[in-house]
Amino acid sequence: MSQTITLEKTGPEAAQLKPLSVDQQIEAIIKKDTKSAYVHSQSTLSKGVPTGGDPRGLKILPETTRKRFEEAGIDLSKGYPYVPNKNDIPIFLDEATKIRNDGFPFVERGVNADPEKKAFFGAAKQVINLTTKVGTEIVGLQLSDLTDQQKDELALLVAERVVVFFRDQKLSPQKQLELGQYWGQVELHPQSPRVPGLPGVGVIWQNYSLGHLSFKNNTFGNFGIRDAVYGSQTWHTDLVHEFQPAGITHLHNDAIPELGGDTIWSSGYAAYDKLSPALQKFLDGKEAIYFSAHGYIDRDDPFSGPKKIERRHPIIRTHPSTGWKALFVNRSMTKSIVGLEPPESSVILNYLLDVLEKNADIQVRFNWKPTKPGYGTSAIWDNRVSVHSTVWDYEGLEPRHGTRVTSLAEVPFFDAESKSQREALGLSLD
Ligand SMILES: [Fe+2]
């Protein structure tokens, strides 16, 4: 911004001082402030978290996680998790928007895979569909052993079934990262805590980062209370504000409560199939505005409060592997439908969110179940065709810790010639 402030100094010192603009001063203040590590409206970290390795996290690190990390040679000597250095975190909206703003090449791995998935299914002991429309569990196969052909077939299976589960996995964070890199450019989150030495491996650990959840308030975000979006309990899709949003996310939980801590997914394909042909036609080809979880300061209006990164994407998108249409909205990070007046947008958007959230017949709820120390359970889902939500019924009383790798995918598109899932599969459209 153009406004400058002259600092009050006199004498020879004054001659050497360059006046700082307001945004430069704000930047200096934020970077000097040791109490607030982050600049956004819903800090997921408690105040006073240091940057670099956190010794406090190391003290409460679950034993099963520690075993996995030690076996994988992760350096925990400086603390855990690694919290990004403040100087590397964007403060201003224009800086944050510039990250990955130009597009990058993406190879859709499922598109050329064998539709019968013979190499992948042939290596598994059992393939269990958990519901008719969404969720499949694979038994007797280690993710760390997959060949490229099997990885392609798994990508197609994930695209078709929305989410695929693997229990009892011996999977190092390094191997998990490698797998994610095969499926696309791995997202490096500028703000989130991560595994030391592995910038693409994020940490999902609510005991560490969300101290303000309670039995009463943990689902407030699902009631449309905007300021109450506390995190993963609110239905959401990962990273929708990106120019090329998330494709496959792989969450590997290595510390799991004895009871509770489930995750629920809902299918965007099936949600589209629930709509009337008239509403489908109305939405086909329309766009919506999506925004980031974190907020940043507007350089030209720094005192107006944090603002989110916003991006336009098709509200109905076509999946490049299956060719099926999916409803692409989520309660946490969809602002409005382009071309509608705000009240119209709000009514229709809320209805579409309800379709995803209230129809149990298009959802799967997965109980992770503890496994032996050093092992964990993986869920691999496609964000292009789903929303998900976690169940905080364990209330943080037992540890729940996981590592997450997200592969970014294509620029979202809508192909007017594409079909709905039921249409493509020849199922009844009533
Ligand atoms: Fe998520």
UniProtKB/TrEMBL annotation:
Its cofactor is Fe(2+). The keyword Transcription does not apply. Pfam families: TauD (PF02668). Residues 129-406 form the TauD/TfdA-like domain. Keywords: Dioxygenase, Iron, Metal-binding, Oxidoreductase. InterPro entries: AtsK-like (IPR051323), TauD-like_sf (IPR042098), TauD/TfdA-like (IPR003819). Signal peptide: none annotated. One of its GO terms (molecular function) is 2-oxoglutarate-dependent dioxygenase activity. The keyword Nucleotide-binding does not apply. It comes from the Eukaryota. One of its GO terms (cellular component) is cytoplasm. SUPFAM superfamilies: Clavaminate synthase-like (SSF51197). Belongs to the TfdA dioxygenase family. This is Taurine catabolism dioxygenase. It comes from Ascoidea rubescens DSM 1968.
